[in-house]
Design brief:
Shape: globular
Distance between the termini: 31 Å
Helix content: under 10%
Structural class: mainly beta
Number of strands: 33
Number of domains: 2
Radius of gyration: 29 Å
Number of helices: 1
Strand content: 35-45%
Length: about 600
């Protein structure tokens, strides 16, 4: 389905890549992604905009007025349409019903609005305002995460109007496409009619990023025989209005990029006109030329011609990218929202290594510029502290962790080992040996420690600190391996459903947690187990993280996980003995 808008989108990408000095008079245009929108309701006990009295000032090409935000309507996810992937798969949209506030200017109804999309051209009349689409972060697993900062992504706000075809003009023709998003894999849909026209809008003075890029929203239903949407509960979204949880119901509309009242001729319209040299590669006759932004050029033809140093990033140094067929310094990797999900977990050696809880919450990581060997500085993004929440069911407690700062290195060039060992000597300093004595008869050597449990003496720890050793193996941990050290404070709160951001950490000591994408191992030496456990039950306990994809570092729910381990030293008299726990933070 190679439409004029798809052509315009492709041409836009090439324009950004090649930075050609000559462009067509009208276009190519900067267009948004496709979005598949789901009806949803706010989860029980979750905050809602209802009865809050929220208002917003909205300015677009049609209206300038104030609106009340009445209720949540749903969530819109970046969608892949017929294999064309979204450019920003991280920034989603939340949908709110809006209404002009009392005394404010009503909608100035529009007639004969020409709208061009990948599904053809349609002429519309607008009826009234319907909803507001707001850029949002989204976690399908329900963990809280910060709202996206408007200046750090390319997604606009959109004000949507109910619309119908202008009388006497051709009706919208039923269209079909294969759609996939973060909720569902590829399914075939039918788009049967126009539901709304959404205009890029200035919200409360935030500005518009792409004045040409709007959205045409079409009723979308899975084709006969396709599986229905799997309803999701506790989907967390956060935006500039509110953070809350949604329960999804079903698909509602597909919103596709659109031009509103475009000129009769533009780059991507399928005809060579204006100052254009081409609309497709077949229009170019020069040796090795291709059509880029309606200009014939050799840049982009897959061959490094004269005056070029590259055609792809692989032709450049590791810290460079191919821009305009010449190598240039890479931009910073940017942010990665690590929204903690069910593929992560907390594991205990005292439970046979089993997972006994799942962390929720989020960490937002910041990747800097890449150096000549492919190393990138990692840090905790602005907005700290961040929090993780782990509910421990057997004892009805919530383990809350406050992360205040983190630093580390992402090794995009590989060649580094990032495995760690966290070691602890469980024997009290100066003691001779740890001798388990279940019968109560201790050996006669006064230098020995006699215990029915751990080797610290009665009621106290050994006094030894954990020792963290990094790079403990000679093997290469791979491209995308990382070591990440965080300062944290940990506290426990009774009960479930705890808001860890409101917990009291003031009396807790500041600790250091070292995370790795490699193997994290605990080793407790001189361990003396409890009466219910064998003496060698904590020789070693390990969990592994997962390397990041440096080329797609900022994609949420993409590859990459961090693991850490901690020793659990028990004083004498407890039957559990020494132990260890591991935490894996993963957003897949």
């Amino acid at each position: 389905m190679q439409s004029i808008i798809r052509v315009a989108c492709a041409l836009l990408v090439w324009t950004l890549v090649t930075a050609l000095p000559v462009q067509a008079q009208n276009g190519p245009y900067d267009l948004p992604d496709n979005y598949l929108c789901y009806k949803s309701k706010v989860s029980k006990f979750s905050p809602s905009v209802k009865k809050t009295g929220l208002t917003t000032a909205l300015v677009d090409q049609f209206d300038n007025s104030d609106y009340g935000v009445l209720k949540e309507r749903g969530v819109c996810l970046p969608a892949n349409v017929d294999g064309v992937t979204a450019e920003d798969e991280v920034t989603h949209l939340t949908s709110y019903q809006i209404k002009t506030t009392k005394g404010a200017a009503k909608h100035n109804k529009q007639t004969g609005v020409v709208v061009v999309s990948e599904f053809g051209t349609v002429t519309l009349d607008t009826k009234k305002e319907d909803r507001l689409l707001v850029p949002a972060s989204l976690n399908p697993s329900g963990g809280a995460l910060p709202a996206p900062l408007f200046g750090l992504h390319g997604v606009d706000h959109y004000k949507c109007y109910k619309a119908k075809e202008t009388k006497g003009t051709p009706k919208f023709s039923t269209a079909a496409a294969a759609l996939s998003d973060q909720f569902e894999s590829s399914r075939n849909f039918e788009m049967k009619k126009v539901k709304a026209l959404c205009m890029a809008v200035v919200k409360d003075g935030d500005g518009v990023k792409s004045g040409d890029g709007h959205l045409l929203c079409l009723q979308a239903k899975p084709q006969k025989g396709e599986p229905k949407h799997t309803k999701r509960i506790f989907v967390y979204t956060n935006d500039s209005l509110i953070g809350h949880f949604h329960d999804t119901k079903k698909e509602e509309v597909l919103c596709v990029p659109a031009l509103v009242n475009p000129p009769a001729e533009f780059c991507g319209d399928g005809s060579v006109n204006q100052a254009e040299a081409c609309e497709a590669d077949v229009d170019c006759v020069g040796a090795g030329e291709v059509c880029v932004a309606c200009v014939c050029t050799q840049c982009g033809n897959g061959v490094i011609d004269g005056g070029e140093t590259c055609e792809t990033d692989g032709d450049c140094a590791i810290n460079e990218e191919c821009s305009g067929c010449n190598c240039a310094a890479r931009a910073a990797l940017g942010t990665r929202v690590l929204s903690l999900g069910p593929t992560g977990g907390m594991f205990s050696s005292l439970a046979g290594g089993a997972k006994f809880s799942t962390p929720t919450g989020s960490l937002t990581l910041e990747g800097g510029l890449m150096d000549g060997v492919g190393d990138v500085a990692l840090s905790l993004a602005a907005g700290a502290p961040y929090f993780s929440t782990i509910y421990v069911q057997p004892i009805d407690e919530t383990l809350c962790t406050e992360y205040s700062s983190c630093t580390g290195t992402l090794h995009c060039g590989g060649g580094v080992n990032v495995d760690i060992i966290v070691g602890l000597d469980s024997l009290a300093p100066g003691a001779g040996a740890c001798v388990q004595d279940g019968s109560g008869n201790c050996p006669g050597d006064p230098g020995d420690v006699c215990c029915s449990n751990a080797c610290e003496g009665v009621g106290v720890g050994s006094g030894n600190s954990e020792v963290v050793t990094t790079g403990v193996n000679g093997s290469d941990s791979g491209v995308g391996a990382a070591l990440f050290s965080c300062t944290a404070r940990v506290t426990t709160v009774l009960g479930q459903g705890v808001d860890c951001s409101a917990a009291d950490y003031s009396s807790e000591a500041v600790t250091t947690q070292v995370f790795t994408t490699g193997a994290a191992t605990t080793q407790i030496t001189n361990h003396c187990a409890g009466s219910a456990a064998p003496a060698d039950s904590v020789v070693a306990f390990a969990k592994s993280g997962e390397v990041f994809d440096c080329s797609n570092f900022n994609l949420e729910d993409h590859v990459g996980a961090l693991a850490t381990v901690q020793t659990a030293e028990e004083p004498s008299g407890l039957i559990t003995g020494d132990g260890a726990q591991a935490i894996v933070l993963d957003d897949d």
